[in-house]
Amino acid sequence: MNDFQRLPDLASRAVGGSVVAANDESFAERENLVKPSAPVFSPRTFGHKGQVYDGWETRRRREPGHDWAIVRLGMPGVVRGVVIDTAFFTGNFPPHASVEACSAEGYPGLAELEEVAWVEIVPRMPLRGDTAHHFDVAAGDRFTHVRLRIYPDGGVARLRVHGEPVADPRLLAGLPVDLAALENGGMVEDCSNMFYSSPNNLIAPGQATVMGEGWETARRRDDGNDWVLVRLAAPGIARLAELDTTHFKGNAPGAAALRGFDARTAVPGDEAAWVPLLERTRLQPDTRHRFPLAGGDEITHVRLDIHPDGGMARFRLFGELTADGRLALERRWAEPAG
Question: What pTM did the predictor assign?
Answer without folding.
Answer: 0.91
